[in-house]
Amino acid sequence: MLAMELDHDEAARERYVVSLKWHINLDLGPQLRSAYEGQAKPRFQRQHGRSPKDRHEVRELMLTEPSYQAWGSLSYLAQELMWTAIETEIARMQPALNTGSKVVRPRGSLTVDPAFRAPRYVTAVDIHLQPGGYALDLGEGDVTAGAFYEGATRMYALGQGIRIRGNRALPEVLAELKRQYPRLAPKRILDIGCNIGGSSMACKDVFPEAEVYGIDIGAGLIRYAHARAESVDKAIHFSVQNGERTNFADGFFDLVASGTLLHETSYKAIYNIFQEAHRLLAPGGVMAHLEIPVRHADMDIFTQFGHDWSTHFNAEPFWGTLHDMDVLDPMVKGGFARNKCWQRYISLPNGSRWWVCGAQKS
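Below the sequence we write its predicted structure tokens.
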């Protein structure tokens, strides 16, 4: 059984990190707009005779603003404190985690190719500052990368002010797909960038009769995902693969989905992923991708600047570029008919807002 059970001190440390993140994001964060409107922007207007034209000029301006410097330093520190807390937990539980990840009689399957090489846009940075990054693999049976990510899910959303745990957005998206495509009854589903398997299990919950396949670039993530699914008796097939080019046959899937994957790829990769999804889908099959709100066109330039924090300081170099993209373009160039492509926002009962894009194969 794979489980991370915290002792008293570890739980207290996590609560402190969540409280710190809460204070930084929800108490101090909103004050930055006042500093911009009341001090930085008027200073720029006096110097240039105009207002800042885009988020890049806002960023250059705010980098010299003491309130933003303080907020940014605290934000970075809180992120590092989160990973330090999780690292301490993993060090104590490492033997039990690796033992618990071994599945004796699996319902699903696990495939790890030792020759696989993760793409550079993943290995070049430690995304979210996660130690070792998503591709971290300490050897046969290692699940450290998955344990890091599991720990982060306990704190990250809460620290943003989202008072629920786990990814509740993807089930909402899948339910919306069932309403949008009443005849959608997938026999096989592919979850690209499944990480530790939460999205794959959501697919299985919503479509229990379907065969679900989850792929990701990290062996440590996939091993953790497999053990996690097996511990709750979910038969899911996990493998280490790149969503840009998989080993599945043409037309093998009826639904190809992802949950917050796109912003952690690259400009070229998105075109490749959508093209691969088109190849993998059977006629009438559906592709759907969930993301944190990504359309800069829907935001004022100060909000754009605020969202762009992750590009520069949270090791997510593609974040800002994705916000600027017209995602319908890679869908169409990937083979989908434009009138079959769509994008929209959905709101969850907890108040969070998510962006979804997708297409149906003609």
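Strands lie at 109-111, 188-192, 211-216, 236-240, 253-259, 281-291, 341-347, 353-360.
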